[in-house]
């Protein structure tokens, strides 16, 4: 087999739509016989029906063989894991041979063997006869089996090579996972149909191409002929209101069922419209992934993805970076998501060699690229959810894009074309970018972007809607900056929104590491944990980033005034009649608010004023069950302050400070608390042995700190190895401890003066004064202390229940929260700073309580920051016998610099003069 051919396949049938047909179909999934060879040059005698495969293994189909103990796993983002020398491939070319026998039902004649996805180069034999070969891993292919089928037992054999000339087209940022990873069927269906269902001026128009006759009983449409058009009274399809109509197309030999959604995508005055109204894409990029099955994703998992997205106010998906399993698109039609369907094309690794020999611009690859585009469009053309075709991802520029785009425009003028890799937008209908900063997005929103050299192209592009096909890289802790992007998307009509990178962490379940990432299987070339950058953890638990995204994407907004709330409907299409509204003050029962379907101002219920700080929370929940969530599911919420906390001066006045500090025996005692007389450090707190709070500037770098370059700067400064020098311990009415905190080998430092007073509780005021020329942001400004493991639950009043940093934690609300130490940890696959609770008024640790004056940031862990910094996988973190408590004044923002902009200037933490006060009281 010539693996270095540019030809995408041979012996294949014309691509056609994925359809539900009543034609007989045989499911060929299941257990196949399997043998893996390290090279491609082995005899193909295994394809003979009488070949003895007794010493082969069993392998499930669909699956990837490296996830079943055969061969090696590898992850790279951009880099090709073999030399760049198209169309050549390495001699080491894992080759999987598959065999399975099946019995043909009596009376069966003819049929097609259909493979929904084989990674990567597949040759197919039926009863020893070679049917052909195919490439294009994430695309369906069919071979005519008819002439070679025989009654009774048939033997199907498939040889799958991992590497071929086509591998240069499949350099997506993901695990390299060969195998027959999607369904295999033998079907007697041959039908193809292209349904056109549009919506304008309150009515739907329906027609179709292909032979057959189309009926939509619910609409009274019967036996429509190809090419004929009917106008019908319908409810249009939108992601918010995914109304589908059952249609049936009958042919002499079979009939197919499909679900028609009427909708029209258009662009007018540079604005993206659906059904004539502006469309704002609140999207995510979805790779197919399952921690055990890789891209062989079970149906229930696909469904779980769509449900999770819907429940987190996501309304759009980009199928990065290949067409998904066809069932996924059915789910998007049914449950309602706008989809950018992306072609299985990425040649990113050529970027590392200056895009030399890029297949995108190599005419010898033109057929292969066109083949991929055709197979995507033909397969997916009937989905109302699919609103744009994307030519691929990160494939540079070149002539073959024109070939793909030209064909697609002709075949399907109803859908705009997308491609990000060519900023001139020569072949697209929308201007798309990835990771553009807020400032650049703003400029584009104002139509004030830098012009292209080619003025004609510039004028074309300036008339296009803009979207960010990737933004807010959700790697590890973060992303920060979501609210600011959304604000821009909502402000400028040209901005059609975007797609957060990315949906899920691709961590593979691993017996030692918990979840594995690049390098964990000994790959020589890999991109580490760059594959762990999702909004959900590998087991699909939402990360704090997804909760923030839900908040930012809320389709209802609350604007509070004096005793009133204005409810603003931000849906693109729906009104508010599917929602119920409730208001409550913590501790009191919820009261129902009557909100008009179009929104408007309503009075907040009168609540008896309490003594302490009180907030009103208003929530919008589903009034009834929806297909994607049950009644009561919260869609949006808002809070407003009802009663402010007592002011600080009142508080100070309330407690009269007394000088109960007594020196003796090497200690300075304050009731059952005590300080070391030498160092002035707190050693006992209300009877608990503690290691006293002291100034700390370090945090375990986040992925954003790390890849964005801050960690390197911080380490160069030595912020991870601060020294503490005590200059004076002075005892008067207060205990004053004067210190200088600084790393070795620099003259930068901080003067930290701790002033303790005692009145039954302990009050601490820390004055911090930087010395020297601090240029870069610092990780953190706070105190670190540790205590014995007597504490296992923390109760606090402040933002919660989840973590929050200066530019994240939008999902956190003011309230009284409680969590165990374990629950306070966010289990990022790659350990890093996490779990910080913000704007804490007070926190109770069982034996004692800490109060802010007025607030502080709180993190409690069963391991130290150094241990967290050193850990590379979750199992590296082992709970010790102490609780490490961090009481913080400030943190550096999170940003999204692992790929994209860092924290916005407002969220940067600069070394500055500061005073920080806290109280410690016995429980
Ligand atoms: C961008 C890729 O399109 C995406 O697949 C992913 O790799 C992401 O980066 C990083 O996680 S391309 C990058 C050069 C901006």
From TrEMBL:
All copies of domain Beta galactosidase small chain/, residue ranges: 667-921
Enzyme type, top EC level: hydrolase
Molecular function (Gene Ontology), one example: hydrolase activity
One Pfam family of this chain: Glyco_hydro_2_N
PROSITE patterns noted in UniProt: GLYCOSYL_HYDROL_F2_1, GLYCOSYL_HYDROL_F2_2
Catalytic activities: Hydrolysis of terminal non-reducing beta-D-galactose residues in beta-D-galactosides
Keyword annotations: Glycosidase, Hydrolase
EC identifiers of the protein: 3.2.1.23
Family recorded in the similarity comment: Belongs to the glycosyl hydrolase 2 family.
Name of the protein in question: Beta-galactosidase
Organism: Nonomuraea marmarensis
Source lineage: Bacteria, Bacillati, Actinomycetota, Actinomycetes, Streptosporangiales
């Amino acid at each position: 087999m010539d693996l270095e051919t540019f030809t995408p396949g041979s012996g294949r049938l014309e691509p056609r739509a994925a359809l539900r047909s009543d034609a007989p179909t045989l499911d060929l999934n299941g257990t196949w016989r399997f043998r893996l060879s390290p090279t491609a040059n082995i005899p193909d005698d295994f394809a003979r029906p009488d070949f003895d495969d007794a010493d082969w293994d069993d392998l499930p189909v669909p699956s990837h063989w490296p996830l079943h103990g055969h061969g090696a796993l590898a992850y790279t983002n951009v880099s090709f894991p073999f030399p760049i020398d198209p169309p050549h491939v390495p001699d080491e070319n894992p080759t999987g041979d598959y065999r399975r026998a099946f019995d043909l039902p009596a009376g069966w004649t003819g049929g097609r063997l259909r493979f929904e996805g084989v990674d990567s180069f597949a040759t197919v034999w039926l009863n020893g006869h070679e049917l052909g070969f195919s490439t294009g891993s994430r695309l369906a292919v069919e071979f005519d089996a008819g002439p070679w089928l025989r009654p009774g037992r048939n033997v199907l054999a498939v040889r799958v090579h991992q590497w071929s000339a086509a591998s240069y087209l499949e350099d997506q940022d993901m695990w390299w996972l060969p195998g027959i990873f999607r369904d295999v069927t033998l079907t007697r269906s041959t039908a193809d149909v292209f349904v056109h269902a549009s919506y304008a001026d309150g009515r739907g128009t329906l027609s179709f191409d292909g032979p057959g006759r189309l009926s939509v009983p619910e609409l009274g449409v019967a036996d429509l002929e190809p090419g004929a058009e009917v106008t019908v009274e319908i409810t249009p399809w939108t992601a918010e209101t995914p109304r589908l109509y059952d249609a049936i197309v009958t042919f002499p030999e079979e009939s197919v069922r499909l679900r028609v959604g009427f909708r029209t995508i258009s662009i007018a005055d540079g604005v993206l419209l659906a059904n004539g109204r502006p469309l704002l894409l609140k999207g995510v990029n979805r790779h197919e992934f399952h921690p055990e099955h890789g891209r062989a994703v079970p149906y229930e998992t696909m469904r779980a993805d769509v449900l999770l997205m819907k429940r987190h106010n996501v309304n759009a998906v980009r199928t990065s970076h290949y067409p998904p399993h066809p069932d996924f698109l059915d789910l998007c039609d049914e449950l309602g998501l706008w989809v950018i369907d992306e072609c299985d094309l990425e040649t990113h690794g050529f970027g590392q060699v200056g895009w030399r020999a890029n297949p995108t611009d190599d005419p010898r690859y033109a057929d292969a690229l066109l083949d991929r585009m055709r197979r995507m469009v033909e397969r997916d053309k009937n989905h109302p959810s699919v609103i744009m075709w994307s030519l691929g991802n990160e494939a540079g520029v070149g002539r073959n894009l024109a070939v793909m785009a030209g064909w697609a425009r002709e075949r399907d003028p109803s859908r705009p074309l997308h491609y990000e890799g060519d900023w001139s937008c020569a072949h697209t209908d929308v201007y798309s970018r990835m990771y553009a900063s807020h400032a650049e997005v703003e400029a584009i929103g104002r139509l004030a972007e830098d012009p292209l050299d080619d003025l004609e192209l510039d004028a074309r592009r300036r008339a296009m809607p803009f979207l960010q096909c990737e933004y807010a890289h959700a790697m590890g802790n973060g992303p920060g900056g979501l609210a600011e992007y959304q604000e821009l998307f909502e402000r400028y009509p040209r901005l059609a929104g975007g797609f957060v990178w990315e949906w899920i962490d691709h961590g593979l379940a691993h017996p030692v590491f918990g979840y594995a990432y690049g390098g964990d299987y000994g790959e020589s070339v890999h991109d580490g944990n760059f594959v762990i950058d999702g909004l959900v953890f590998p087991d699909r638990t939402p990360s704090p980033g997804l909760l923030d995204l839900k908040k930012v994407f809320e389709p209802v907004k609350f604007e509070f005034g004096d005793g009133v709330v204005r409810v603003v409907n931000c849906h693109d299409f729906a009104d508010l009649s599917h929602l119920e509204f409730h208001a409550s003050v913590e501790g009191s029962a919820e009261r129902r608010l009557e909100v008009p379907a179009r929104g408007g101002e309503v009075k907040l219920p009168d609540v008896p004023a309490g003594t302490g700080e009180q907030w009103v929370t208003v929530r919008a929940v589903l009034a009834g069950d929806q297909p994607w969530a049950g009644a009561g599911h919260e869609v949006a919420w808002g809070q407003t302050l009802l009663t402010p906390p007592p002011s600080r001066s009142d508080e100070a006045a309330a407690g009269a400070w007394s000088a109960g500090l007594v020196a003796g025996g090497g200690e300075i005692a304050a009731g059952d608390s005590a300080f070391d007389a030498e160092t002035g450090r707190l050693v006992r707190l209300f009877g608990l042995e503690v290691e006293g709070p002291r100034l700390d500037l370090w945090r375990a770098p986040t992925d954003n700190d790390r890849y964005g370059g801050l960690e390197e700067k911080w380490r160069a400064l030595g912020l991870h190895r601060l020294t503490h020098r005590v200059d004076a311990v002075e005892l008067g009415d207060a205990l004053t401890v004067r210190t200088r905190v600084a790393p070795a080998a620099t003259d930068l430092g901080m003067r930290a003066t701790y002033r303790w007073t005692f009145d039954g509780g302990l009050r601490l005021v820390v004055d911090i004064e930087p010395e020297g020329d601090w240029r870069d942001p610092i990780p953190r400004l706070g105190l670190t202390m540790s205590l014995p493991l007597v504490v296992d639950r923390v109760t606090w009043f402040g933002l919660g229940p989840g973590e929050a940093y200066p530019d994240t934690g939008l999902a956190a609300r003011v309230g009284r929260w409680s969590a165990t130490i374990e629950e306070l940890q966010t289990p990022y696959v790659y350990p890093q700073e996490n779990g910080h609770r913000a704007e804490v008024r007070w926190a109770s640790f069982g034996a004692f309580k800490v109060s802010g004056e007025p607030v502080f940031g709180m993190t409690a862990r069963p391991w130290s920051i150094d241990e967290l910094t050193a850990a590379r996988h979750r199992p590296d973190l082992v709970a010790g016998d102490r609780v490490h408590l961090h009481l913080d004044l400030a943190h550096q923002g999170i940003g999204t610099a692992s790929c994209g902009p860092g924290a916005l200037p407002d969220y940067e933490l600069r070394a500055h003069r500061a005073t920080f006060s806290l109280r410690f009281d016995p429980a």
